[in-house]
Amino acid sequence: MQTLTVDLGDRSYPIFIGEQLLAREDLFKPYLAGKQVCIVSNETVAPLYLQSVEKALNGAQIIHVLLRDGEEYKTLTELNSIFDTLLNHRHNRTTTLIALGGGVVGDMTGFAAACYQRGVDFIQVPTTLLSQVDSSVGGKTGVNHPLGKNMIGAFHQPRCVIADTDALKTLPQREFSAGIAEVLKYGLICDLEFYHWLQLEMDGLMARDPQLLREAIYRSCVNKAKVVAADEREGGLRAILNLGHTFGHAIETAQGYGNWLHGEAVAVGMLMAADLSARLGWIKSGEVDMLRELLQRARLPIAAPKGMDVQQFLQLMAVDKKVLDGQLRLVLLREIGSAVVTTEFPLNELKACIAAAA
Asked: Does the annotation mark 140 as catalytic?
């Protein structure tokens, strides 16, 4: 097992990465606020892993909430089922919520924990690659709105993150690839050495080699932990973690949540951001081609959905959280391994970039 820390002063917390972690009482018990525990999972994950987590919580008073599986259910309506269960079982401020599932379960459980009785503890137990390397770390929680993704939420840090790589053995190929998109992101924005490593090891990663997988998850979490520690509430630096997300969220919103996986949309968004960076003369066109090839090796899409045009992209991007005083800000690449948040891009180049991907 590998352990690293998200350094946030008195709210710092560990990330545990390794095999056979879900049933380890010693990882869960120190982070329970009291006897009451509510495990939030979904209909897909619970039959596989709920029993193991319950074993680790020996002696706790456990209740469950099973959410419907899918991004389309990441709504305020579905969130209310968590509150209903907590209230019906009279859970108090010493309850601990445990998010057992992928990014949707983690985001919703964290948001419920942030809101219930004005804030209770929660533990992240991510079971997808995307959630292990990204959404479970950093305290961003929330739900979607029909007009925009993750527009309703709160910053609420977990007590710990328990990333069991054994859970990835049951992950469908499409979801595994979606997680690889977020892994690639870290190399692009802040870790050139990692990006070169991914170029060398992508085929082994796609074959789910256990050693390569642990290394990719660990290095991704190290990079995210550094950024979050420097800028917890996205006042500046943390926004670089959104490389490709402004384009990607537009795709997800246009297609209807759940039709494109988050990582798939981010993959196309990162390629669009790289293309725009090349048009500005910041990176070479050959580097965009290399990224395109890497995405293809990861079995990820490299073009926007059919039917999306420039105007639709611009309309949906205008409601992105990074828009400030009516001005669109994008995360672009000054070079591979170095990202910047900027408004310095001509509209005609942005339109050309969108048209090339559409």
From this structure: yes
Residue 62: strand, helix, or coil: strand
89 noted as active-site residue: no
User: Residues 24, 91, 156, 182: which is the catalytic one?
Assistant: 182
Q: Are strands 140-145 and 121-126 parallel, antiparallel or unpaired?
A: unpaired
**177 and 129 both lie in a single domain:** no
Residues 71 and 208 occupy one common structural domain = no
Q: Among residues 142, 166, 190, which one ends one of the domains?
A: 166
| E runs forming strands in the chain | 2-6, 13-18, 36-42, 61-67, 96-101, 121-126, 140-145, 148-155, 161-164, 330-335, 338-342
According to DSSP, the residues that pair with 106 across neighbouring strands are none
Average pLDDT, the chain: 96
pLDDT digits (tens, 9 = 90+) for 129-148: 999 999 999 999 999 999 88
- In the residue annotation, 182 being an active-site residue is answered as yes
Q: Which residues contact 164 (CB under 8 A, 6 or more apart)?
A: 18, 19, 20, 21, 22, 125, 127
Do residue 331 and residue 196 come from a single domain? yes
What's the mean pLDDT in 192-207? 98
Residue after which a domain boundary falls, among 136, 166, 196: 166
Number of structural domains in the chain: 2
Q: Which residue range(s) make up the domain with 116?
A: 2-166
pTM for the structure as a whole: 0.95
Instruction: Give the domain CATH number at 93.
Output: 3.40.50.1970
262 is catalytic: yes
pLDDT on residue 322: 72
Please, what is the angle between helix 262-279 and helix 245-255, to 10°?
130
Q: Is the pLDDT of residue 212 over 90?
A: yes
Tell me the one-letter amino acid at 217.
I
298, 183: one domain: yes
Q: Is the pLDDT of residue 127 over 80?
A: yes
